């Protein structure tokens, strides 16, 4: 049945259609949960890029848990162990059953028509609760690579993207979670690039350290894994640096994933070096959270490599508060901080410090 045909049937069904649609959300949750227990479908793709132009994409859901990929690694690599977004659980199932929804007891797979029904449900209703449930189900299904293609093929990317204009913050957050999983697919990225500017603006205007802001940054991390869309983020580098300065450790870690990916692109080096970041020197300190510190070191290493290749010297056009001036204009202070960090308790940090020193 086509999307247009299903639209007609659901409109005629009225309120009953909404209830059935909510049941479909639960069906998808059950189906994807079953897949997780049985080893998964297409698999999750893992880890963010930290030092290579074409790095690895971060994990679908466990962003705070993701490990640092060595700078030498690259390409999109699937890994096992899909972790799904939670949300449509027993409590929601109980509500749906009380509403008279006949739930299937043993779903054996997620089909294109079920995804298509969820997409139309999302397009048809204005109830934020139903929208959230549909988005959670789509986000769960998008943890599997085969479903990422299905959602694109039935026109779901634009429908989910349109949810970014919904005024309810929790709906936008769930939409961003779904887009993040969908952006782990390079063909999807070609369509999703249209949302980069809007999501950069959302990350800038969202409450600092909010889940909505983090969801946007996770999407931008995936979209910055390749060099193709870096130019669309150039004007937001000052925004990213403000978030790095004021955010908590989770926000700092996530924004650094974006900045490290940008810094791996030689074409972005001058934009980053010119950006104001008077606070940056203070982040090269043993008291800084390891995950934050390690990424700051990789960020500086990438920029140093670009500078070395182009044989840059101190240039008058860099402002006193620029990244260039903070790290290389204050070279003595920066060098002392690196020497202190050579005594850091963590092996990964010490190795990255040594690599940075060798680049200088």
What does this structure look like?
This protein is mainly α. The chain contains 18 helices and 2 strands. It has a two-stranded antiparallel ribbon with strand order 1-2. Helix 10 runs antiparallel to helix 11 and helix 13 (249-263) runs parallel beside helix 15. It is elongated and about 60 Å long. The model is unreliable at 6-89 and 91-109 (pLDDT under 50).
From the structure above, extract its key features:
transmembrane, mainly alpha, Armcx_regulator, membrane, transmembrane helix, 360 residues, 1% strand, 2 strands, ARM-like, single chain
* Major sheet description: 2 strands, antiparallel
Strand order of the largest sheet: 1-2
The number of helices is: 18
Mean pLDDT: 75
Q: Name the helix and strand elements from N-terminus to C-terminus, one letter apiece.
A: HHEEHHHHHHHHHHHHHHHH
Radius of gyration: 22 Å
Low-confidence stretches: 6-89, 91-109
In helices, the fraction of residues equals 55-70%
Alpha-carbon distance between the two ends: 62 Å
Shape: elongated
Estimate what percentage of residues fall within beta strands. under 5%
Structural class: mainly alpha
In total, how many beta strands?
A: 2
Membrane topology: Single-pass membrane protein
Pfam families: Arm_2
Main location: mitochondrion
Biased composition (Basic and acidic residues): 45-56
């Amino acid at each position: 049945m086509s999307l247009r045909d299903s639209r007609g049937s659901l409109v005629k069904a009225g309120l009953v259609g909404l209830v059935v649609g909510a049941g479909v959300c639960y069906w998808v949750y059950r189906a994807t949960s079953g897949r997780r227990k049985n080893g998964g479908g297409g698999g999750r793709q893992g880890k963010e890029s930290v030092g290579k132009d074409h790095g690895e994409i971060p994990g679908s859901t466990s962003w705070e848990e993701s490990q640092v990929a060595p700078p030498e690694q690259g390409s999109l690599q699937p890994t096992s162990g899909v972790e799904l977004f939670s949300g449509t659980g027993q409590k929601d199932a109980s509500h749906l059953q009380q509403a008279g929804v006949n739930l299937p007891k043993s779903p054996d797979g997620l089909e294109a028509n079920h995804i298509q029904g969820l997409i139309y449900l999302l397009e048809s209703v204005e109830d934020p609760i139903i929208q959230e449930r549909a988005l959670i189900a789509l986000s769960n299904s998008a943890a599997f690579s085969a479903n990422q293609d299905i959602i694109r093929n039935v026109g779901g990317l634009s429908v989910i993207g349109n949810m970014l204009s919904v005024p309810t913050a929790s709906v936008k957050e769930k939409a961003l979670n779904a887009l993040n999983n969908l952006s782990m697919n390079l063909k999807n990225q070609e369509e999703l690039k249209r949302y980069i500017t809007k999501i950069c603006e959302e990350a800038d205007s969202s409450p600092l350290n909010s889940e909505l802001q983090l969801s946007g940054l996770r999407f931008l991390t995936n979209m910055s894994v390749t060099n193709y869309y870096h130019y669309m983020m150039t004007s937001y580098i000052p925004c990213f640096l403000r978030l790095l300065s004021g955010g908590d450790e989770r926000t700092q870690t996530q924004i650094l994933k974006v900045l490290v990916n940008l810094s791996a692109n030689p074409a972005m080096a001058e934009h980053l070096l010119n950006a104001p970041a008077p606070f940056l020197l203070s982040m090269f300190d043993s008291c800084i959270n390891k995950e934050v510190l390690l990424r700051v070191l990789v960020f500086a290493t990438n920029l140093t490599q670009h500078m070395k290749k182009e044989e840059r010297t101190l240039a008058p056009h860099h402002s006193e508060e620029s990244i260039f001036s903070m790290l290389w204009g204050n070279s003595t202070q920066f060098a002392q901080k690196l020497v202190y960090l050579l005594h850091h308790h963590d092996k990964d940090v010490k190795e990255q410090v040594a690599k940075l020193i060798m680049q200088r």
